[in-house]
From TrEMBL:
One of its GO terms (molecular function) is transferase activity. Belongs to the gamma-glutamyltransferase family. InterPro entries: GGT_bact, GGT_ssub_C, Ntn_hydrolases_N. This is Gamma-glutamyltransferase. Pfam families: G_glu_transpept. It comes from the Bacteria. Keywords: Hydrolase, Transferase, Zymogen.
């Protein structure tokens, strides 16, 4: 049985991964169990009504694969428009988001986890869901990341729906500081343990979710959930030094940005981060994020335009530089397998689907994921995504998993961590801890270059795990959030007789 390294957003999620690893699970099993717990206790950041991506490095050394469980545009047979309203928040530097029943997209993260488990897992599915059931049944304390978010939106987003308001507030109307037990959530997880993701797509939970959304004026119908399918694709490959990384391919834009930035870094920084290294990182971000804002977010063929952009990066990188709410789990195991999972429910629609205990997403209401506007895509179309769960292989046999939450800071957090580790010679934890810079609204008149002075969750929450060639495992969690790590030695094999 393999040893497993786990980096998770909170202690309960890390405990779940550890529990599964001790039962003989591999990196994929541990990651799935940990992520399912985040869907219970990372309130406001992720839920069972989420989308996400899983990137896996198979232990046999084969090419990395990405399982796309991101959000679909709903609305089959429904009149589009309505069921939404806008709210402003200072969270994340200030953003206007659209919430309400009409902001709910067709979820897919549990379906992606199930497909990943079917291909690469070893522990029975029901056992992977059990830790999440226990957390939901016993109750949980809100994480610091959830509390920080809810400090901004507990009234505006989580206060309009009665079940939601009751779940996160105490009797005085303040954010709950005690144990939170969301009615019906453990029972919903029991259905998922028994029936798998079908419970959320064709079963009782799908029926309850779609009926409540449509009744309240939204467009997520039963057919939207029934027609949803996770998609498995070859990962997008990028190289840095002696590492080969696999990250999220189109239709996600996040992996494209990571691959382009890694190529443009040109092996920098080399050693300590000098001022010119920081400026180089800013130039790289400005080039890549600016191209995303001006071209990739608006294209009618992301795969074509992403490939053309990466070809341009490879052919003329210097000339290019001269032109103008989420949770993540990383795991690796001693067999050489690696698994990176990033999931999100957006900023949350603010509603719990009646009878389920499940907070519903608002991914149709995130402006940067919907460049064509609210309800601007054809039903069944995947939304854009910043997510970039990434795995890596070194020529010496090392394996890595890395990723981050943080909206448009996901890609810049990942790339700067990899730059420090691969190019700068930092240890994995030191690379995660290193202060960051982010170019916000790159290439636009209101562009802002934000340089981190004190560690803050604005700049992401990287989780990374590493298997060295001798089988030694390393795990690093970001001090910017309540990250937790585990190094688990699997059970010794039972001797016959």
């Amino acid at each position: 049985m393999p040893d497993v390294a786990i980096a998770a957003p909170n202690e309960a999620a890390a405990d779940a991964g550890e529990q599964i690893a001790l039962a003989g699970g591999n990196a994929v099993d541990a990651a799935v169990a940990a992520v399912l717990v985040t869907m219970v206790n990372e309130v406001g950041l992720v839920s069972l009504s989420s989308g996400g991506f899983v990137t896996v490095q198979p232990p046999d050394g084969g090419p990395p694969q990405t399982v796309d469980g991101w959000m679909d545009m709903p609305g089959r047979g429904q009149a589009l428009g309505g069921g939404t309203w806008d709210t402003d928040t200072e969270y994340g530097g200030g953003v206007r988001v659209t919430i309400g029943p009409g902001s709910v997209a067709a979820h897919g993260s549990v379906a992606a986890l199930e497909e990943t488990h079917r291909r690469w897992g070893s522990v029975p599915w029901r056992e992977l869901v059990t830790p999440a059931i226990e957390v939901a049944r016993q109750g949980f304390h809100m994480s610091s990341a959830s509390r920080y978010y809810l400090d901004h939106v507990h009234q505006t987003i989580f206060g309009w729906d009665e079940e939601s308001r009751t779940a996160v507030h105490d009797a005085e109307g303040e954010i709950e500081t005690g144990l939170i037990v969301v009615p019906d959530l453990a029972a919903s997880l029991e259905l998922i343990a028994a029936d798998g993701a079908s419970a959320l797509h064709t079963g009782e939970l799908a029926r309850l979710i779609s009926a409540d959304v449509v009744r309240r004026g939204g467009i997520l119908g039963a057919q939207d959930l029934a027609d949803y399918r996770p998609v498995v694709r070859p990962s997008l490959v990028a190289r840095a030094g002696d590492w080969t990384f696999g990250t999220n391919p189109p239709p996600s834009v996040g992996g494209v940005c990571v691959a382009a930035m890694l190529r443009l870094l040109d092996g920098r920084p080399r050693g300590d981060w000098e001022p010119e290294d920081v400026q180089h990182i800013i130039d790289v971000q400005r080039a890549v994020l600016g191209h995303r804002l001006s071209v990739l977010d608006h294209t009618d063929d992301l795969e074509r335009d992403a490939a053309a952009f990466l070809d341009l990066v490879d052919r003329d990188d210097l000339a290019l530089l001269e032109s103008g709410s989420t949770a993540h789990v990383s795991t690796t195991d001693s067999d050489g397998g690696a698994c990176a999972v990033t999931v999100s429910s957006g900023y949350s629609s603010g509603m719990i689907a009646q009878g389920t205990g499940i907070w519903l997403n608002n991914c149709l209401g995130e402006p940067e994921l919907n460049a064509r506007g609210l309800h601007g895509l054809a039903p069944g179309t995947r939304l854009l995504s910043n997510m970039a769960p990434t795995v890596g292989q070194h020529v010496d046999g090392s394996a890595m998993a890395i990723g981050s939450p943080g909206a448009d800071r996901i890609t810049t957090a990942i790339v700067q961590t990899l730059a420090g580790f691969v190019n700068g010679g930092l240890g994995l934890q030191d690379a995660v801890n290193h202060r960051r810079v982010h170019v916000h609204r790159a290439g636009r008149p209101d562009e802002v270059v934000r340089t981190e002075t004190d560690l803050t969750m604005y700049y992401g929450g990287v989780g990374a795990t590493l298997r060295r060639p001798d089988g030694h495992l390393v795990a690093a969690a970001d001090p910017r959030r309540d990250g937790a790590v585990r190094l688990v030695h699997g059970p010794a094999p039972t001797m016959p007789g």
